[in-house]
Write a structure and sequence with these properties.
Layout: H1 35-40, H2 42-56, H3 66-86, H4 95-117, H5 119-122, H6 124-127, H7 136-162, H8 174-198, H9 201-215, H10 231-234, H11 238-251, H12 257-282, H13 285-288
Helix pairs in contact: 2-7, 3-4, 3-7, 4-7, 4-8, 4-9, 4-11, 7-8, 8-9, 8-11, 8-12, 11-12
Length: about 290
């Protein structure tokens, strides 16, 4: 260290003795989710969620009405072709509201997976410049879709009045199924987003896979159409039990607890695995995004 002629110590420009040393390290891979860390960055989470909503509907004519138009128009198309022409059974429920009740959670799930899956690549300018928990990005994308889901549910309320669907205590079960499908969307979205940073083909394949997943789920048809010998295999589709439970809550039907159990176990198992995989790859995001 250089000294003055009088022997007085003078630090070089590279050494600041009185300044604290801050070391930023990647999160431990064996810690899947650090909720305390998410809470510390909650303001950033709110900002990114609001930014997603604002950017998505900027310079659109009907704005937020697109939220309800997408599932509503899709339900009308399915109601005409599958309900009227093909006459797909709907467990004694008018097909239009039956299919809309399936499209509500599915549209949220599909859009949440798609947006969160591409969220890291779309936020590369933030990842390469600012330190924050990267998991906030896919979580914010899903949070924005939750707002859409809440708005589109208002249309379903009007349909319940039109078709004279009684409101029962079964509706309280939505407090279970909405968080469950949100966690499933987060699990799938985290895994896709982590893979998509390095392998962009994953992002290209997601829309096709989501379409296939839709027709492998009881969205436009009841799960009762699946042959009994395949019911246990069908229950391995985690979205199946959630959508059927969602419908049972709305139409006061008996719950399939076995399917719900399968969906819950698979959702939490996938969430733990996806969070672990996300943490392992997190330190590489800034270098390869």
């Amino acid at each position: 260290m250089p000294n003055s002629p009088e022997g007085e110590f003078r630090p070089t420009p590279l050494q600041l003795p009185n300044e604290p040393l801050v070391v930023i390290e990647a999160s431990k891979a064996w810690v899947p989710l650090n909720l305390r860390e998410l809470w510390a960055y909650r303001e950033l989470l709110y900002f990114l969620t609001w930014r997603d909503l604002k950017v998505r509907y900027k310079q659109t004519i009907i704005g937020v009405l697109w939220v309800v138009m997408q599932p509503l128009l899709t339900a009308i198309i399915f109601a005409v072709f599958l309900g009227k022409l093909v006459r797909v059974p709907s467990d004694g429920i008018p097909y239009a509201i039956f299919v809309y009740a399936g499209l509500l959670p599915w549209t949220f799930f599909a859009s949440a997976v798609a947006s969160s899956g591409n969220s890291l690549v779309g936020s590369s300018h933030l990842i390469t410049k600012v330190f924050f928990p990267r998991i906030i990005i896919p979580v914010a994308a899903i949070g924005a879709r939750l707002v859409d889901f809440a708005i589109s549910f208002l249309i379903f309320g009007g349909m319940m009045v039109y078709y004279r669907i009684a409101i029962t205590r079964h509706l309280l079960m939505l407090a279970l199924f909405v968080p469950l499908i949100t966690l499933l969307a987060l699990a799938v979205g985290m895994l896709i987003s982590a893979l998509n940073v390095k392998y962009r083909d994953v992002g290209m394949a997601v829309p096709v896979l989501i379409q296939l997943w839709m027709f492998a789920s009881p969205i436009v048809y009841p799960s009762s159409l699946v042959p009994s010998k395949w019911q246990k295999v069908y229950a391995l589709n985690p979205i199946a039990g959630i959508v059927e439970g969602f419908r049972s809550s709305l139409f006061a039907k008996e719950f399939d607890w076995m399917a719900l159990g399968f969906s819950s176990i698979l959702t939490f198992a996938l969430l733990i695995y996806s969070a672990y995989a996300f943490r392992r790859r997190e330190k590489e995001f800034a270098d390869i995004v």
